From TrEMBL:
<keyword id="KW-0762">Sugar transport</keyword>
<keyword id="KW-0547">Nucleotide-binding</keyword>
<keyword id="KW-0677">Repeat</keyword>
<feature type="domain" description="ABC transporter">
    <location>
        <begin position="245"/>
        <end position="491"/>
    </location>
</feature>
<dbReference type="InterPro" id="IPR003593">
    <property type="entry name" value="AAA+_ATPase"/>
</dbReference>
<dbReference type="InterPro" id="IPR003439">
    <property type="entry name" value="ABC_transporter-like_ATP-bd"/>
</dbReference>
<keyword id="KW-0067">ATP-binding</keyword>
<feature type="domain" description="ABC transporter">
    <location>
        <begin position="2"/>
        <end position="237"/>
    </location>
</feature>
<dbReference type="InterPro" id="IPR027417">
    <property type="entry name" value="P-loop_NTPase"/>
</dbReference>
<keyword id="KW-0813">Transport</keyword>
<protein>
    <submittedName>
        <fullName>Ribose import ATP-binding protein RbsA 1</fullName>
    </submittedName>
</protein>
<dbReference type="InterPro" id="IPR017871">
    <property type="entry name" value="ABC_transporter-like_CS"/>
</dbReference>
<dbReference type="InterPro" id="IPR050107">
    <property type="entry name" value="ABC_carbohydrate_import_ATPase"/>
</dbReference>
<dbReference type="Pfam" id="PF00005">
    <property type="entry name" value="ABC_tran"/>
</dbReference>
<dbReference type="GO" id="GO:0005524">
    <property type="term" value="F:ATP binding"/>
</dbReference>
Length: 491
């Protein structure tokens, strides 16, 4: 359906894409993968008219086309679904889908006929959403359905999904992937832009790998593996993704000792120590209680048991524990970690403002100097400390949290899914940050759903199953098979 020949895109003196040749077929899901800045989202936006081509040609059904707006692309049946949805949250599902395509009776809208048209599209694609529901009240995955239905009601034949699961909780990913698959089965061409390699392997037919704005290769997804995709995207093999971690000081007193930690109905009798410089992985299936244990240690949720931190038994508020030397990279940076609409400097320094305050108020110069130094140490890419967090890539947003953490110089870092929503290239720099903190003698509690990440970084792994520690693995016993056997032991 779609053919690109020698396509390139430049923004001023910056070359984003060079000499891209590929074909997108109907009835298939075609993935674009690459690191942040590789050009995958830019290529998707060229196809749906958000950007115009700087060079090359694009053909739809054999006819050359040139778009200067998404509306022109939609006239040719090409539509885009971005992770930041363009819906009217205060209006109904019906209003959002029918907007601009209402059935008219003279100068008036024929409400009944308009509703029938919307319901017919839902029925045709077996994609049902309450037409009278207010869009802002719907879960994100349902809002995505509304955006898709709006495109389908305009006869879209090719739909570009740009990071569609980036904002979804884990339990809503599978329904979205099934929806994408159903569109291809219905004869649509689907382009799926993502850095989640597991999703690519599960849900797509063809994969195009981009690196530094260049086309590396295109081929059947069935011929790819997780390792081959990592190598294609980064140019390095998987084993090189993990830094060497220094041995911890097991002779030193533990930074934290957890004894009999329990929260009835959630987790029971959790006990472990973490020594200076030690990375302890907390692994398990989704819903096993991993994050809940971390929240209890930080004081975010009530619990029973004993926590000794830096030699003293602790209790009390989150603020007191943070002030005492704990820090946390939360599972969901958008909702739990960052002020997305505020500048980088504020996100980095907010918990530490007392360090820059005096009789005359806040010393902005010292604050900015400290924020700049700690951001630079994470190798964060930004133009100005005044840039808002939501203007940065996922990897750089995550580095804001690490800059905030290192500014506080904690004794314990709880890192809950520290590379979620981060491309495979940016992951290595985050791994380096974690290994570097351990080398400084910090204790690290690492929670991750990615087995390779747990195996690649941890000195020791505690496996959680149904709220209990089902196994403790280290050394030669720390294998994927042993980890998964323990994870499933209580199911």
């Amino acid at each position: 359906m779609l053919t690109l020949s020698g396509v390139g895109k430049s923004f001023g003196g910056t070359v984003a894409l060079t000499d891209i040749d590929l074909t997108v077929e109907t009835g298939k899901v075609h993935a674009f993968v690459g690191e942040n800045g590789a050009g995958k989202s830019t290529l998707g936006k060229l196809i749906v008219g958000v950007h115009s081509l700087s060079e090359g040609r694009m053909e739809v059904d054999g006819t050359e086309v040139s778009f200067t707006s998404p509306a022109q692309a939609l006239d040719h049946g090409l539509a885009g679904i971005s992770q930041e949805l363009s819906l009217m949250p205060q209006r109904t599902v019906l209003d959002n889908i029918a907007l601009g395509r209402e059935v008219m009776r003279g100068p008036f809208i024929n409400a009944r006929a308009t509703r029938r048209g919307v319901e017919a599209v839902m029925e045709r694609y077996a994609m049902h959403v309450d037409p009278d529901a207010r869009v802002g009240d719907l879960p994100i995955v349902e809002q995505q359905k509304v955006e898709i239905l709006r495109a389908l009601s305009r006869d879209a034949r090719l739909i570009v999904f740009d990071e569609p699961t980036a904002r979804l909780p884990s339990d809503q990913v599978a329904p979205l992937l099934a929806l994408v698959r159903s569109l291809a089965d219905a004869g649509k061409a689907v382009i799926y832009v993502s850095h989640f390699l597991e999703e690519i392997l599960e849900a797509t037919d063809t994969v195009t790998i981009l690196r530094n704005g260049r086309h590396i290769r295109t081929g059947p997804t069935a011929n790819e593996t997780h390792d081959s995709l990592v190598e294609g995207v980064t140019g390095s093999v998987l084993g090189e993704q993990y830094p060497e971690v220094a041995a911890p000081d097991r002779a030193a007193p533990p930074v934290i000792s957890v004894t009999g930690l329990s929260r009835p109905g959630v987790f029971e009798n959790v006990s472990f120590d973490i020594h200076p410089g030690e990375i302890v992985g907390l692994a398990g299936l989704v819903g096993s209680g991993r994050s809940e244990i971390a929240r209890a240690i930080l004081g975010a949720d009530p619990s029973r048991g004993k926590i000794t931190f830096n030699g003293r038994e602790i209790s009390g508020s989150i603020a007191a524990r943070l002030a005492g030397g704990m820090a946390m990279i939360p599972e969901n940076r958008r909702e739990q970690g960052l002020m997305m609409g505020r500048p980088i400097v504020e996100n980095v320094t907010l918990p530490h403002l007392s360090r820059f305050s005096g009789a005359l108020g806040l010393d902005r110069r010292r604050e900015r100097a400290a924020a700049d130094a700690h951001c630079a140490a994470t190798e964060m890419k930004y133009a100005s400390l005044n840039d808002h967090a939501d203007a940065l890539s996922g990897g750089n947003q995550q580095k804001i949290l690490f800059a905030r953490t290192t500014l506080g110089d904690p004794a314990l870092l709880i890192a809950d899914e520290p590379t979620r929503g981060v491309d495979v290239g940016a992951k290595r720099s985050i791994y380096d940050l974690i290994a570097g903190l351990a080398k400084q003698g910090k204790a690290i509690l690492l929670i991750s759903s990615e087995i390779e990440e747990i195996l690649g970084l941890s000195h020791r792994v505690l496996v959680v199953s149904r709220g209990r520690i089902a196994g403790e693995l280290e050394g030669a016993a720390l294998t994927e098979t042993a980890l998964m056997t323990a994870a499933f032991s209580g199911t």
